[in-house]
Amino acid sequence: MPIYEYRCLQCRKRNTILILNPNQEVSCSHCQSKNLERLMSRFAAPKSEEARMEALADPSKFGDLDENDPKSMTRFMKRMGKEMGEDLGEDFDQALEEAGGGEEEPSISE
What is the pLDDT of residues 6-39, one digit of tens each? Predict the structure, then answer.
């Protein structure tokens, strides 16, 4: 069954909606608006649990980690979430940025 992602044009929140019927009307799960735009969905490249744990154990991933610096911990939490394949949502990302002083994560080349 297809799952599609939409952004509400009213409240700007992302919605993930299971479409059971091609004629199904969709609405925002946050504000109930029907004014949604369909987003290009991300795809998953599955890794085994073992491969994810090995990647997290790589000491080079912790070179800039300072547990006493909120910005450093924010970058680390985002990196961990990406490595584990978890999307905790925009609310979680916003909370991390607020806790870490609002710094964006620098781009990481792998």
Answer: 999 999 999 988 888 888 899 999 999 999 999 8
Global pTM value: 0.40
Please, which residues have CB within 8 angstroms of residue 82's CB and are 6 or more apart in sequence?
none
Q: What is the C-alpha separation between 51 and 19, in angstroms, rounded?
A: 32
Half-sphere exposure of 93 (CA within 13 A, CB side): 13
- Say if residues 88 and 81 touch (Cβ distance below 8 Å): yes
Element holding 71 (H helix, E strand): helix 70-83
Q: Are strands 36-38 and 3-8 parallel, antiparallel or unpaired?
A: antiparallel
C-alpha span between 73 and 24 (Å, rounded)? 42
